[in-house]
Backbone:
């Protein structure tokens, strides 16, 4: 598939992997719909894309709210008439040990990392089924393969995303030509660790930061690769680790 002129929705586009993916796909000619809660950051990104000759619609919203998704789809179809790709990227990672019972943070992770992905799929699927084609990229994590300290709930949410992706692929790819990919990165240098409130875990991450992390643009390249294979080839998983990470 060629990404040129394809209509691509990216959630969590206001920073990190979402922002890098927006820049990469816009360079390749995609028409973008960028969503997140921070409007100022989305506007800065939109300006950057437009200065480079690209096209991006920004729509602020919260992935945990179905009504925000309804508006997003309505506005996307209003402007671009179709939806070719959904990149379910929004996520957070407030790590802590289970015994600390930070249940509010568990709930947020379940709401954003799992329900956010489900809401996104539910919102775009009628259009993709009608089109008999499309691509869904879900950002899971190496956390779907390996537990790390304080990550019991986060790893569970990312395992859910990986398995949901496989179920989606088996249901949608043969019947409707809708390709589904789970992207599973190790440590990427982004703002994700800012959501950690637990002091012990923050210390662990300081130690880890001596390692060379992946860059957000590395994941953007992986997403571009998954999206640009021939329609006959579904890239199921991309599991990508920093060379120095165990
Ligand atoms: P960032 O913190 O830079 O990006 C997270 C994005 O999610 C932000 O744009 C944020 O936007 C958005 N977001 C968070 N909550 C919501 C919400 N309720 N509604 C809408 N948007 C929301 O981190 P990354 O770029 O690293 O994270 C992107 C994805 O990659 C996440 O799913 C993460 O779990 C995954 N990942 C990251 C890894 C890493 O090491 N960095 C490794 C493996 C996977 P805003 O606050 O403006 O709403």
Residues:
């Amino acid at each position: 598939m060629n990404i040129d002129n394809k209509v691509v929705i990216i959630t969590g586009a206001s920073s990190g992997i979402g922002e890098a993916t927006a820049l990469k796909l816009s360079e390749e000619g995609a028409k973008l719909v960028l969503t997140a809660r921070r409007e100022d950051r989305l506007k800065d990104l939109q300006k950057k894309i437009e200065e480079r000759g690209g096209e991006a619609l920004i729509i602020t919203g919260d992935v945990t709210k179905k009504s925000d998704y309804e508006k997003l789809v309505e506005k996307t179809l209003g402007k671009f008439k179709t939806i070719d790709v959904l990149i379910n990227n929004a996520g957070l990672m407030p790590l802590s040990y289970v015994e600390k019972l930070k249940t509010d943070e568990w709930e947020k992770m379940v709401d954003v990392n799992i329900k956010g992905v489900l809401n996104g799929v539910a919102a775009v699927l009628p259009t993709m089924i009608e089109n008999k084609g499309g691509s869904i990229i879900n950002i899971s994590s190496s956390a779907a393969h390996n537990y790390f300290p304080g990550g019991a709930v986060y790893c569970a949410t990312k395992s859910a995303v990986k398995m949901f992706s496989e179920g989606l692929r088996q249901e949608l790819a043969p019947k409707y030509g809708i390709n589904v990919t789970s992207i599973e990165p190790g440590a990427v240098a982004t703002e994700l660790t800012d959501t950690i409130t637990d002091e012990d875990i923050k210390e662990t991450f300081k130690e880890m930061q001596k390692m060379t992390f992946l860059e957000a643009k590395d994941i953007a390249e992986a997403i571009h690769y998954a999206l640009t294979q021939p329609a006959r080839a579904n890239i199921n998983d991309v599991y990508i680790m920093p060379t120095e990470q165990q």
About this structure: The pocket of NDP is lined by residues 11-12, 14-18, 36-38, 41, 62-64, 89-93, 112, 139, 141, 185, 187-188, 190-192 (CB under 6 Å).
